[in-house]
Design a protein that fits this description.
With 376 residues, this protein is mainly beta. It contains two helices and 35 strands. A hairpin with a 4-residue loop joins strand 18 and strand 19. The longest helix is centred in the N-terminal third of the chain and has 9 residues.
Length: 376
């Protein structure tokens, strides 16, 4: 069997697993959430928001070969499908053992306010309070038991705003916080030492949608933003995590996915400086990045270019590559069964969960696919 293709029976089994359940989800210290039924459709087309079946040409965009040395393979399994096909969430956050996916494309629109929550204990999805306004490529991070959503695009991957919000799981409500100093979308948000760093992204003017290297930090106690040293090599759609007291920014793009990079920078907060590390073996953007067993695991992404809307040299990456901070080296693992970009990716227990995302170059097709990886 082609490892890049997900059998329909596997997708439906994952979708069906979450159908049964209580009318109200209870979670200690949380307001009750409404259960959400998994989508019966693996893919939807953005135009019209209708079910879609991949053509042979679209399936041919899948690319899983990695130049990195082989590490422990690991394995993937299907999990409960998302409540609807969606992509361009950018990206997801873990809070109290659950995955939170906010905003993005779906139902034929690019300005969705969705807030879906996945609980691995029952392999179930729930609906939480929607964002006060819809957007795509919203930066999200959790800190101090709350969820933060920052910036985003109002149009398709462009026209960013400065809006920022915090979600309280005890009340299931969003509240506005101090707006971003400068508007941007597709930025990376990560918590470190009690503050949230917002790094990179893309901004105005709308027609140019240029990548930025801006690095601003939000203090929730003071409800205030401060400026820090900019990211070397302005870029957006990066992978970003905090680990070992530093922030890793991996991969991304210079303005468009035609100019992907494998650049890997580390921010050292104590010195307000950036240092370079071993690059991502497969340059890409729109990938997930998760800390798992002391390593950084990067999965998914896209590359290529669009010529008057027609994809050229299009690749949707399924590579799973991991970085060892101690050795400054990369390794490869079992690729994603369903390559995707603009995914929601978090670690829950001993599993890396990867939900939703685009299955062709660009934002024309969304997926409800949800798969999880473990080294076992």
């Amino acid at each position: 069997m082609d490892p890049t293709r997900m059998p329909r029976r596997a997708f439906l089994a994952g979708a069906a697993a979450a159908v049964a359940g209580p009318v109200v989800a209870q979670h200690a210290g949380h307001a009750p959430l409404k259960p959400a039924t998994p989508s019966p459709d693996a893919y939807h087309r953005l135009q019209g928001g209708v079910p879609h079946h991949l053509s042979p040409e679209q399936e041919a965009q899948r690319f899983v070969d990695s130049p990195a040395p082989k590490g422990e393979a690991g394995r993937w399994i299907a999990r409960a499908a998302m409540p609807l096909p969606r992509s361009e969430m950018a990206w997801a956050a873990e809070l109290n053992g659950r995955m939170h996916v906010v905003g993005g494309y779906g139902e034929g629109r690019v300005d969705r306010p969705y807030h879906h929550v996945y609980d691995p204990a029952g392999d179930r999805w729930f609906d939480a309070a929607a964002l006060p306004r819809g957007a795509n490529h919203v930066a999200v991070a959790s800190l101090g038991g709350r969820l933060y959503a920052m910036g985003g695009f109002i149009e398709q991957n462009r026209n960013s705003d400065t809006k920022a919000y915090v979600w309280d799981p005890g009340t299931d409500r969003w509240e506005a916080i101090a707006p971003l100093p400068r508007s941007r979308g597709a930025a990376a948000a990560v918590a470190l030492d009690g503050r949230i760093h917002l790094i990179g992204g893309a901004s105005e003017p709308v027609r140019e949608r240029a990548s930025v290297g801006w690095h601003e930090v939000y203090d929730p106690k003071a409800d205030r933003w401060d400026m820090l040293k900019a990211l070397p090599g302005a870029r957006d759609h990066v992978g970003c995590v905090a680990h070992g007291g530093v922030i890793h920014v991996v991969g991304g793009r210079f303005n468009t996915f035609e100019y992907n990079t494998g650049l890997h920078h580390v921010y050292v907060a104590a010195r307000d400086t950036w240092e370079e590390r071993a690059p991502l073996p497969t340059p890409r953007s729109g990938h997930g990045l998760v800390v798992y067993r002391g390593r950084l695991f990067a999965m998914g992404g896209e590359g290529g270019f669009l010529e008057r809307g027609v994809p050229r040299q299009a690749k949707v990456f399924g590579q799973m590559e991991s970085y060892d901070p101690a050795a400054d080296t990369w390794a490869s693992h079992a690729p994603m069964p369903t390559p995707r970009h603009a995914v929601a990716a978090v670690l829950l227990g001993d599993w890396v969960h990867v939900a939703g995302g685009g299955v062709v170059l660009g934002g024309s097709v969304q997926s409800a696919v949800h798969e999880a990886f473990t080294l076992g």
